[in-house]
Amino acid sequence: MSALFDVDVSAPSAEVMEIARQELRETPEVRAAAIVELRNLLKAAADLNFPDDDDFLLLYLRPTHFYPESAIKLMRNVAQFQKNNADLLKNLMPSDLKNEITNFDLITVLTNRDQFGRRVVIVKQGEAWDPKAINEDKIFGILYTVHKLAALEPITQICGAVVIYDFEGLGMKQINGISVSGVKRLLTFIQESAPLRMKAVHFVKEPTLFSMVWALMKPLVKEKLKARMFFHGDDMKKLHKHIDPNYLPANYGGNMPALTYASKEWYPALEKHSDFIKKFNSAGFK
Prior knowledge:
By secondary structure, this protein is of the alpha/beta class. Helix content is 49%, strand content 11%.
């Protein structure tokens, strides 16, 4: 496996730590005090069972700007979300999704970050998606698994992630594969139940029919997320106002070569870090 597709668990650079200081209030003193307080809050929470080592607590402290009360609320949200979706998420491991990841190129993680150090994930839900071959539950399962690896990366914990939803060739076959319950699950995850800084969601190449998808989503989108949603159609220059074309493949009008890799190339990274995924899965209600 190429190192390009590995998870980056290296320590953040001084530049990234400056972002953490400015955006997340993170300093050595704030970090140390918040870890101690969150650990004490966990001990006092009779119904929660979460690993309490420093690194795992940081997963929840960074997206909540080192406010321990907010971090334990996020933990409780994650526990509730996993309980509510236990039929799909309980003990979900990469091997459970190997067929869908390696044989269907629907979710791609770019090997490079964007100009702000953010992870970029591309989700194809247009004509590339056959709902009869891989349903929306499986797509969500893949996204949920990928987010665990993103949360493992200290740089991504600080800089966050962006998602590009590619709806090229969207037709009624795909629209019929999207349910209200599936949309609600996705938005609950993004808005309330992910220990990850979701910086932006970009919709590209969406045809007129996309209005039917948006009609399902709009009532469930809160103002904070709505402000981070952008609709570009076929105008990649609009996308480039947010993600510099020097960090995008030619598929999206970028200056980098067109994508020559697919989801099967990053599947080994999931298996390599299966111990962390098990650890993440173990967290929740007692």
